[in-house]
Design a protein that fits this description.
There is one protein chain. The chain is α/β, with parallel strands linked by helices and 302 residues long. It has a single domain, classed as Carbamate kinase, CATH 3.40.1160.10. It has 9 helices and 16 strands. β3 and β4 form a beta hairpin.
Length: 302
């Protein structure tokens, strides 16, 4: 069936708008943190995979870092292993860490790899332990003990933070036209496993790889102001102010923390976008308006 004149104009407009971005980002690395509802709903999983394949086909190097909190919680519940959180972080003893590795490094990682490959990509799944990709140490969590008026160190087990990233592992994959899909598990000094926040892993990878962009998919429309409106463009200093006054809080804090760190390390821009919007990645990368919140070091950068 022949397309109408209006459809033809819309299609040509979209392609024309996308062209300068394809040219600009050709050969660039884009680190994409994949999580939230986009990892659960079948239609969103397929549109995400097609977006990633398209980025690769037009000459970009997408690197995917995924989460998996809900999937971990579901399996822990089935195994009758209790879950406890401190300041939003899952307390991870040895038994829980076994489940984390099984879910992140196995079930979730391989599902993402399979769906990208189904849509014509060449995805390879790795964890941060493979090739010493991510060296980690135990995250130290401190809270103030009001009774003693002193900091209290809380042991949350195998929860880690990134010490270093071995970019050779990722570079070898992207140079051979593979799409790396990374589970946020790091290796400690003695080879022990650490569960690391996926946003923070994505940020550190973007820094180490010298990525052009860091995209963080979430379940919200981006960073919201006090009235619930999306703040479409922010500088690093504005993000710091919004954090100080409490506008940015709770689950958005790790995202903005890794965004600011990535910008300081030279990443051009960070986008926090709504992963529940179909083809959210393409709308952000290939259109003038974009979606969600764009954070840059200075006005107009990125």
């Amino acid at each position: 069936m022949q397309i109408s004149d209006d459809q033809a104009r819309n299609i040509s407009s979209v392609l024309t708008e996308a062209l300068p971005y394809i040219q600009r980002y050709h050969g660039s690395t884009l680190v994409i943190k994949y999580g939230g509802n986009a990892m659960v709903e079948e239609n969103l999983k397929n549109t995400f995979a097609r977006d990633i394949v398209l980025l690769k086909l037009v000459g970009m190097n997408p690197v995917v870092v995924h989460g998996g909190g809900p999937q971990i919680g579901n399996l822990l519940s089935k195994l009758n292993i209790p879950t406890r959180f401190v300041d939003g972080m899952r307390v991870t003893d040895a038994e829980t860490m076994d489940v984390v590795e099984m879910v992140l490094g196995g079930l979730v990682n391989q599902e993402i790899v399979s769906i990208i490959n189904k849509h014509g990509g060449r995805a390879v799944g790795v964890t941060g332990k493979d090739g010493n990709l991510i060296r980690a140490r135990q995250l130290t969590l401190k809270k103030t003990d009001l009774a003693l008026n002193a900091p209290e160190i809380i042991d949350i087990g195998h929860v880690g933070e990134v010490v270093s990233v071995n970019v050779d592992v990722i570079s070898a994959l992207t140079q051979d036209d593979f799409i790396p899909v990374i589970a946020p598990i790091g290796a400690g000094p003695e080879g022990e496993s650490y569960n690391i926040n996926a946003d923070l892993v994505a940020g550190k990878l973007a820094e180490a790889l010298g990525a052009e962009k860091l995209l963080l998919l979430t379940n919200t429309r981006g960073i919201l102001d006090a009235a619930g409106n999306t703040l479409t463009s922010l500088t690093a200093s504005q993000v710091e102010s919004l954090t100080a006054d409490g506008t940015i809080n709770e689950g958005m804090l790790p995202k903005t923390e890794c965004a600011l760190s990535a910008l300081r390390a030279g990443v051009s821009s960070v986008q926090i976008i709504d992963g529940t919007a179909p083809h959210a990645i393409l709308l952000e990368v290939f259109t003038d308006a974009g979606i969600g919140t764009k954070i840059t070091a200075e006005p107009g950068d990125g």
